[in-house]
Amino acid sequence: MVSNTRSLSANRDVFLGVVFALLAAVGFSAKAILVKLAYLNNVDAITLLALRMVFSVPFFIGVAIWARQHHAVPLNAHDRLLVLGLGLIGYYCSSFLDFLGLEYISAGLERLILFLYPTMTVILAAILYKRPIGRKVIAAMALSYAGIALVFMHDIGTKEGNIMLGASLVFASTLSYSIYLVGAGHAITRIGTMRFTAYAMVVASAASLLQFAVMRPFSALELPVRVYELSIAMAIFSTVLPVFLLSFAIRRIGSGSASLIGSVGPVSTIYMAYVFLNERISLLQIAGSMLVLAGVLLISLTSKKQ
C-alpha cells in the first residue's frame, strides 16, 4: 500500500514536471509574439523593455527578499560583483539586443537563433576551460547552423526589413546569454538558483529603467492601452511565470529532461507567429527548424552523458 502511494506520488511529480516544463517553454516563446504585436503601435525597444521590466521586477524583488530571509550565508563582495556583472550581461544586454533584433526579423527566426545557446556554451567552455569538442558535437553544431541558414533564406524571401542586422543582434543576444550561463555556474552553486535569478533580474530591471530614464523623455510613456496590456502579459506570462515554472519542473524531473522538453519552444513560436502575426510557414522554414532542433538535442544528450 505504501509503495503504491509512493509510486502514484512519483508519477504525479513527473507529470507535473513535464506540464510545468511545457508551459515554461511556451511562455518563453510567446515573448517574441508579444513584442512583435507591441511594435505594431510604434513603440521602440528601449521603452518596451523598460515596461516589461517595471511590471516584472516587483515579483523578483519579493523573491529576493524571501530568499534573503531563508539563506543564512550572506553575499560577499565577490558574489555581489558576480550578480551585478552576470545580471547585466545575461538578462539586461541579452534582452535589449533581442528586443532590437525583433524589429527586423520574424519571431520564428529569432527563437531559433536564441535556441543556439547550447552550441555557444560548448564553444565558450572549450575556449575557457580547454575542453575538447568531440566529432559528434561538431556534427550537431553543423546541423544547427545549417538549419539557421535555411530559415534565414526563408526570411530573405519574405523581404521584411534588414534581416542581416536583426539576425546579428539576436545572435549577439544569444552569445551574451551563453556567456552568462558559462559564468553563472559557480555563483548559482553558492548563492542558490532562485536567489541568484531574483537578484540578477533586479539588476537587469534597474539597468533597463535607468537606460529609459537617460535616453527617453517620460512623454514616451504616452502609449495606447494595448501596449501596456501586452507589456503586462509579457512580464507575467513570458518572464515571471516561466522562470518559476521551469524551476519547479527542474525540481521534479531534472534539468536535462526539462531542457529537452524546452525544445518545443521554437516550434511553438513558429506556430504562434502563424496564428497571431500572419507569418507564413514554408517547407524551408520547417526543414531548417528540424535541423536546429536535431542539432541542439544531440548536443544536449551528449552533454548529459558526459
List the helices and strands and how they pair.
Layout: H1 2-39, H2 45-70, H3 77-101, H4 107-114, H5 117-129, H6 135-158, H7 163-191, H8 193-215, H9 225-253, H10 255-261, H11 264-276, H12 283-305
Helix pairs in contact: 1-4, 1-9, 1-10, 1-11, 2-3, 2-8, 2-9, 3-7, 3-8, 4-6, 4-7, 4-11, 5-7, 6-12, 7-8, 9-10
Short account of what is shown:
This protein is mostly helical and 306 residues long.
> What is the residue-mean pLDDT, rounded to a whole number?
83
- The 3D shape can be described as globular
| CA gyration radius, whole angstroms | 20 Å
Number of helices: 12
Q: List the helices and strands in order.
A: HHHHHHHHHHHH
Q: Distance N terminus to C terminus?
A: 38 Å
Structural class: mainly alpha
- The amount of beta strand, in percent, is under 5%
Q: What count of structural domains? A: 1
Name the quaternary structure.
single chain
Low-confidence stretches: none
Q: What's the β-strand tally?
A: 0
Task: Let me know the largest β-sheet.
Answer: none
What helical percentage do the residues reach?
Answer: over 70%
Characterization of this structure:
With 306 residues, the chain is mainly alpha-helical. The protein has one domain (46-220, 265-305). It is 84% helix and 0% strand. The protein is built from twelve helices and no strands. Helix 1 crosses helix 4 (107-114). The chain is globular, with a radius of gyration of 20 Å. The two termini are 38 Å apart. The mean pLDDT is 83.
